[in-house]
Each structure stands twice: as structure tokens, then as C-alpha cells.
Amino acid sequence: MQIDRSKRPLSSGRINFTPPGFQKFNLQNGLKIFFSEKNDLPIVRINFLVNSGSRFDENEKKGLGNLLAMCIDEGAGKLDALQLANEFEMLGANFGVSCNNDTNIISLQVLSENFLPALKLLGNVIMKPHFSEENFNREKHKVLVKLNQSKAEPDYIADVTFEHFLFGKDSPYSYPILGTEQTVQNIQNDSIKNMYEKKFAPLNSSMVVVGNINQDLFQKELEQVFGEWNGTSLTEDQHINHLKSFKILYIINKPDAVQTEIRTGHLSSNRDDTDFFQKQIINLILGGQFSSRLNLNLREKNGYTYGVNSRFNYLKEAGYFAVSTSVDLKNTVNALREIYSEVDKIREGITQNEMTFAQSSLTKKYPSNFETFRQIAANISAKVIHNLSDDYFEKYVGKVNSLKLNDVNSIAASSIHSDQLISVLVGDAKKISSQINEKEFGEATILGFDDVFYI
């Protein structure tokens, strides 16, 4: 049978999908548990969340939360770092620790039959870390080496400098998660221990568990492992005030660079605000997919880049809109001009055809966000961090489909602000600045990367 590929296949109708549910309960010590049963494979996934991300770092010790994450599994309980790693490996466990702006995340994925011994190891890491001076010095050296290497990575430079100028130097979100060479040098092992004592406590933590395990048995095992863990630290409310931005252009000089990394955007509303779903539609059309307006302009029409994307990025206490791309040096200003132009045009509204396509795209790919244990745990973790409603997953598709064109266009006009765009260009400053017409873009501020966090 031959298929006529000149005709688009007919849609089979709306997808009937029920997202995985979850149960909530607290241990006697106050540790919050979010459990979702998934029985198709004999696997259990844990995300242990602690409110100790980089935004809680001390002013002169940026990078503290990240270094804590790197040190906490370097020996725990009766096991040194190598023995601990070997124990996880013998259980076939996938174990990791990471730090982001808002949280430290300790993750564990293991076969159900090895869950209890793996859980005990996890409990030792969380409750009985060694924090030896030798391990601290080694991990601190790794961070300093990575920071030095990052100076050669234009995309990293663009990302961290853009967020620094976006949030402003007084915001805890304006510094890299890794910190800077100067601030990391200020961190000592006692700083790590003090942050651990202050932040790692049941009332400041949550555990997301997804897997093939009985809830009653699982709850008893949790009480056995974590029942004696007590701490006085409470969740710290850290409300952050953000100043309104204005249109400005920064050039971060990377001499002899042949490409320019472009980041431009402005602050936006938080994740739990009511305009989230309208912004999902707007962003998909502007730069959130391959057939977006930005990609059709910069890639397909003008050939300035291999790809460009836009996004609304959400932290716990902040949100922002951003456009990112990399272009040939000679096309820097042309590309920036087209980005500004598309941002202006999206404010004028989208068409009904664009709207219908975006709604279909968002809803039909939604089930794919819940295929794996890792994905389900990540989605529930995001719900916890952003304090979303318990029925958020169930209502997602309905809310997307219920959006009206006029409502989306109204949000586009009120949430995208071309007069507030903060732009960062990382490349050869001499060659970039020669392309800039100050009447069009305003005067550009030229800086070296090492100067950015100290101006």
C-alpha cells in the first residue's frame, strides 16, 4: 500500500490522557512527602528538595549552595566518599546531587528490590555528611577550575551576564550558581557546615517519590530512616523586589571571537500568576518551536543563525522573558534588529490559525512529559517549588483549550515590553560596536567578563 505524502494525515481527535496522580503526607518530624505510584517497571525515583539554592548564598560567598551540594555526598555515616559511591553502584542506583537558584536536589533512582538499602544510604547523605577538610578543598578546587574554564565558553558568559544585568546586582538571582572566583575563594569548610545546619531540616525539605512500591510499606520505611531526623530550621520566606528595567545594550568583550552570543529580554510575572497559559501560547508562536516567527525570520529567511529560541523562564520568586541565539559576527546587529522587530510584532497579536496550532501542539505533546519516572518526579517537584494547585496537571489541557484569541492577544500586549529589553552581546567588542548606530540602539556599554560582577 502506497501512502500519498502530499496530503496531510487527518487528526484522530483529542488525546484521552489522565496524568499520574499523587498522594501527600507528612512524617512525624514534618518532612513533606509527595508520592506517585507507577507500576509498569520495578523502579523507584526520589527527588529530595531542600530550600537551600544559590539565592540563599551570603553576599560575599556566592557559590556556597553549589559547593554544599558538591560536598554533601563526599562521605556520609560510616562510609568515606569512595565507599559510598561503591555502595550506590553495587545497588545499581543512579544517584546525584545538584544545586539551582532555589533548591538543592538530591536524586536517587533504583530498582524496587534495592530500594530500602539505597534509601538508608540516601538518609546518611542527608543526615550524616562528613564535610571533611580534605574533601572540601578538593571540591572547591574543582569549582575554581570550572569557573576558569567557563571564561572560554561564550554561551556561559552570555547566560550569567544577562541574568546579572536583568535582575540587578542587589538581587540574589543576579549571580551565577557556581559563584565567581573571588566569592568562591571566600568560602571555607565552616561556611558549608553552617549552611547545612541552617538549611537541612525536615521542615525546610520535601521528598518526591515515584515508583513501584506500596505506600503503607514505603511510609514505614521512611519513618525508620528519617524518623529521628530533627531540626529547628524553618522554610525561609525571601520575598525579592525587582526594579523595572529599561532598554539598554551591553557588549561583553571576547577578542577575536568569530560569533556573537545574543541574549535579550526583560523581567516578567511569576510562575503562579494567572497569565501563565496565555504566555505558553505566545512564546510557542514567537520562538518556542522550530516553525516559530523568530526561527523563520533569522534562520529560514535571513540565514543569520542555525537556531533561535525564546522562553518565559520561571524561578520561585521571579520570572523573565528571554530570546537567545548565536550568530556570525558580521550579522550581529542585523540579527538583533530582527529580534526587536519580531518582539514588537508579537505585541500586535497573533492570528487564529497560529492560536489553534499552538493549542494543538501544547496539548498533544503534554502526555510525553509524563513518560518516565524522572519526568514525573521532575513535574511534581516543579509543582512543589512553585506551589501550584494539586489539580494542576489534570486541568492543564482544559485550560489551554479554553483560551480565547482576544485574551491571548491582550496578554501579549501587556506582558512583552520592547522598551524594557536588556540585551547582552558576547563577542569581539571592537567589531560589534562598529556596527551599532546609537540612534537606533542607544549607547552600548562595553565590559570585560571579569568586570561584570563588580561594577
In CATH's first tier, which class of the largest domain applies? Alpha Beta
From N to C, what is the helix and strand string?
EEEHHEEHHHHHEHEEHHEEHHHHHEHHE
Range of strand content: 15-25%
> Uncertain segments of ≥5 residues (pLDDT<50)?
none
Total domains, how many?
2
**The CATH homologous superfamily of the largest domain:** Metalloenzyme, LuxS/M16 peptidase-like
Strand order of the largest sheet: 1-2-6-3-5-4
Largest sheet: 6 strands, mixed
Please explain how this structure is put together.
The structure is a single chain. The chain has about 450 residues and is α+β, with helices and mostly antiparallel strands. It has 2 domains: about 25-225, Metalloenzyme, LuxS/M16 peptidase-like (Cytochrome Bc1 Complex, Chain A, domain 1, 2-Layer Sandwich), CATH 3.30.830.10; about 250-455, Cytochrome Bc1 Complex, Chain A, domain 1. The protein has 17 helices and 12 strands. It has helices spanning about 65-70, 80-90, 115-125, 135-150, 155-165, 180-185, 190-200, 215-225, 275-285, 295-300, 330-345, 350-365, 375-385, 390-400, 405-415, 430-435, 440, and strands at about 25, 30-35, 45-50, 95-100, 105-110, 205-210, 250-255, 260-270, 310-315, 320-330, 420-425, 445. Strands 1-2-6-3-5-4 form a 6-stranded mixed sheet, sandwiched between helices. Strands 9-10-8-11-7-12 form a 6-stranded mixed sheet, with helices on both faces. Helix 9 packs across helix 12, helix 9 crosses helix 15 and helix 12 runs antiparallel to helix 14. The longest helix has 18 residues, at about 135-150. The radius of gyration is 24 Å and the shape is globular. The relative contact order is 0.16. The mean pLDDT is about 95.
